[in-house]
């Protein structure tokens, strides 16, 4: 509890981690606020059904609060946004001159603050993916402020967990995105860094994952613990193995 996990991908797609954590926490009975900026609800629901979880049922029983970023953006831009219970849209910054993500933070806080009738376990915030906010016009400072306030509210006060996916590329000229990624790396308790193979495409090995446990955050003299595995994504699960030890090689 109270951990901030950074899901980072480079030269590949790390969205399988988002699907894993979404289904994992829903099965565990946690209250999940999912800020989905990359795909539609139906996309996540189809993948979740393969993993044995129904997002529709989770929404109906109040366990899942889902923000469909694609739909909200279109509604805002074309003036069709219906204010629910008098509250502004979580992505209100799109229609304002100030790059302020306070409305999005208020949405997260309202979604995860337990009520008297709430029987769910610890709250979880899942964001897919944070880089989209920069593409929509939010400044790096606004994005980092948003994450900072979420960490204080969700991790420290509510004793919940946060998972955030970001895309990164060492060769990228997108300085704002790299600034956000590097800043988040310094604040994370755990980094799951998915990378494409340097040698290119392989049918039996889809990439490697670097698991970095930030022991140095605890102000001890120890260095961060780093483990590296390779993986292969299958229809309903992912297989992990030590580097060079895939079934195709052996």
Automatic annotation (TrEMBL):
Keywords in alphabetical order: Cytoplasm, Nucleus, tRNA processing
Main location, first listed in the record: cytoplasm
Compartments (UniProt record): Cytoplasm; Nucleus
Gene3D superfamilies, alphabetized: P-loop containing nucleotide triphosphate hydrolases
Pfam family name, one: ELP6
Pathway where it operates: tRNA modification; 5-methoxycarbonylmethyl-2-thiouridine-tRNA biosynthesis
GO cellular component assignments: cytoplasm; elongator holoenzyme complex; nucleus
GO BP terms, alphabetized: tRNA wobble uridine modification
PANTHER family: ELONGATOR COMPLEX PROTEIN 6
Membership in a protein family: Belongs to the ELP6 family.
Name by which UniProt lists this protein: Elongator complex protein 6
Organism: Dromas ardeola
Name of the gene: Elp6
């Amino acid at each position: 509890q109270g951990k901030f996990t950074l899901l980072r991908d480079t030269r590949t797609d790390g969205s399988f981690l988002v699907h894993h954590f979404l289904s994992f926490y829903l099965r565990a009975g946690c209250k999940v606020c999912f800020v989905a900026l990359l795909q539609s609800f139906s996309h996540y629901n189809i993948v979740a059904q393969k993993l044995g979880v129904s997002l529709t049922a989770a929404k109906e029983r109040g366990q899942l609060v889902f923000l469909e970023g694609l739909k909200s953006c279109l509604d805002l831009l074309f003036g069709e946004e219906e204010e629910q219970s008098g509250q502004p849209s979580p992505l209100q910054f799109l229609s304002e001159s100030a790059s302020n993500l306070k409305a999005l933070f208020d949405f997260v806080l309202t979604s995860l603050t337990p009520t008297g009738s709430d029987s769910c376990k610890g709250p979880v915030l899942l964001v897919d993916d944070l880089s989209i906010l920069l593409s929509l016009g939010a400044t790096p400072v606004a994005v980092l402020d948003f994450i900072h306030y979420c960490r204080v509210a969700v991790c420290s006060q509510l004793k919940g967990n946060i998972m955030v996916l970001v895309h990164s590329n060492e060769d990228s000229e997108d300085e704002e995105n790299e600034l956000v990624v590097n800043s988040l790396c310094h604040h994370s308790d755990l980094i799951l860094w998915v990378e494409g193979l340097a040698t290119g495409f392989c049918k039996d090995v889809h990439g490697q994952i670097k698991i970095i446990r930030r022991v140095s955050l605890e102000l001890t003299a120890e260095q961060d613990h780093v483990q590296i595995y390779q993986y292969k994504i299958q229809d309903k699960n992912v297989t992990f193995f030590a580097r060079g030890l895939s079934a195709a090689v052996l």
